[in-house]
Amino acid sequence: MKALVLAGGTGSRLRPITHTSAKQLVPIANKPVLFYGLEAIRDSGIRDVGIITGETGAEVRGAVGDGSRFGLSVTYIPQEAPLGLAHCVLIAREFLGDDAFLMYLGDNFVINGIRGFVDEFRSRRPDAQLLLTKVADPTQFGVAELDVGGRVIGVAEKPDRPKSDLALAGIYMFTPVIHPIVAELQPGRRGELEITDAIQELILRRADVTSHVITGYWKDTGKVEDMLECNRMVLEGLAPRMSGAVDSESEIIGRMEIAEDAVVVRSRLVGPLSIGPGAVVTDSYVGPFTSVGPGCRLDSTEIEYSIVMDRSSVSGVGRIHNSLIGKEVDISPAASAPRGHQLIVGDHSRVRLDH
What we know:
With about 350 residues, this protein is an alpha/beta fold. The protein folds into 2 domains: about 1-235, Spore Coat Polysaccharide Biosynthesis Protein SpsA, Chain A (Alpha-Beta Complex); about 240-330, UDP N-Acetylglucosamine Acyltransferase, domain 1, CATH 2.160.10. It is about 20% helix and about 30% strand. The chain contains 9 helices and 30 strands. The protein has a 7-stranded mixed β-sheet, sandwiched between helices. A 6-stranded parallel β-sheet has the order 14-17-20-23-26-29. A 6-stranded parallel β-sheet has the order 15-18-21-24-27-30, with no helix packed on it. α3 links the parallel β4 and β5.
């Protein structure tokens, strides 16, 4: 059995962060989202992984390498443009061969992994198996309709009138019967080769399409709010680790990870939180559900419920909360002047300012 991980796409809902970074590499608790997926694949017993890459392919390859750090063997499959999930299956045909395979969207996040899902497929061996989760607004997702026995009898992509509240969670199992269907597939209304159309064709051909409804936490990390919520969920289960240096004038409350070479001076830290390697926190308050990335500098600052990515600096700024701060960002007070704001803001940004 193989795995096909989708790590292309433009990450438009995470702009401006994704103008310069792959959305799958945005960190949750100081570890890229994609890494959680690769670890879940390894823990399910799959070792041979193909990764679909797009414009940020070089960054993904640099982060993942040959996969050996995860106990995996990785093959990279470039996609010329984001032409749909079924297109990813189409271009991966040579890599997949005649093996059954797991398809995993690289920006998905599932607490407790997918081993049960994969084991169920191995034991039952249907033609396809879909991971489903209940959602409040199914019009924003691919949606599955089940019969009384849990067999999938229909799927639709973002329907106006959903027939259930069960969304496709972006994780699928397929046997090779999917390949001839994908090869004949025509683009859908979005101009893409939709995996929901391929699954619906499987159903019409009376293939055995089963479902597995997830009971744990799942999130599509496509928006800033989703990233912050996932960060909170992971930090809540954090195993405490104090490898860095904390001086006697600092106050440490709750569970936290302070990585090697991190330094905390005259600061108050309230967990759960994570401080990455080489970060320096001075005269600051770092509150719950915050991840401070490697090489960051916090000085005379208050921050909570936020993600600060690698090598960024925040100095002399009042409370920051519910924020995602990218790599190598510098945040500092404006020079004394009549009250006002100076902004240099990228495309598609959102800014919230106090009066």
